[in-house]
Request: fold
Amino acid sequence: MRLRTWLVTALALLATPGILGALSTALASDTSSTQPDDLRALDGEWIYVEDRTEGRAIEQLGPPMSSKFSMRIEEGAVILVRGHGSGHRDVRVALDGTITEVAEPQKISRYRGAWKDGAFTYEVDFVRGSDSAPQGLIRREFRITADGLLVRAANDPSEGYTSVGLYRHAQDIALPAPAKAAIGDLAWLAGAWVGTRGAEGATSIEERWSPPLGGAMLAVSRTVSRGRMTAFEYLRIVERDGGLVYIAQPGGASPTEFVLTELSPTRAVFDNPRHDYPKRIVYELSAEGGLSATIGQLKGGTPRRFEFKREGS
Reply:
């Protein structure tokens, strides 16, 4: 009889709108605290946009971590998918501060993460042996802002965050305005171009560009080091919508497109801010008849420069 009375009373209380509403609010509040909107917004692939570290010289500008990385959000954890220095494996970083160990042949990486004050932070300790002291510590913070994802990084957390960069999803990065041009405007690029790099020219690089014809120029690039081919690339420049598009396929991979944004009789600049690296490719003909090819970021950093001469010159 007492049990029946208790059940009736309990059902009556739950049926009371105020109490039922309070219970629903408490549950909803608990769910949102474990998976807030800003945390869920970290999900997906992120592309480096610009360096926002204060006081850096232009040649020092660059991303605070990989130019492209991905994360996946799960209940109570963030999964580091790629671009975090964890090799080809996914790493689950719990938000309660517990440690995730990743064993590799030469080291052990220990990850610890947390969600606090609207930001996800994780630290990584690198240990060379199970009985060794940590030999390095990296801390990274990820915070959603009106401009995109702000990433702060520190290789020595005792000194605070020393590098700051802005990242966005590719579809949120504006594409550049294309320059007007026809394929014949790049006739100066046609020919066989060869160059060397490294000590005593140990590495040779070549690009062989066909003459402009049919709205396109085609090329193949090859890198040879110590008598062996170490890299190759298929290249195209094609006319499109009154401008020119540079299409690169390193190693025969899927094509990546760069839009012509600047053109002069001896210089051509192709940009793709949605690509991780490079974002800019520049070809320039020197007064002496040599050719330089430069790849790098849209702004600052240290671009990679390749020097060529016409084959046989």
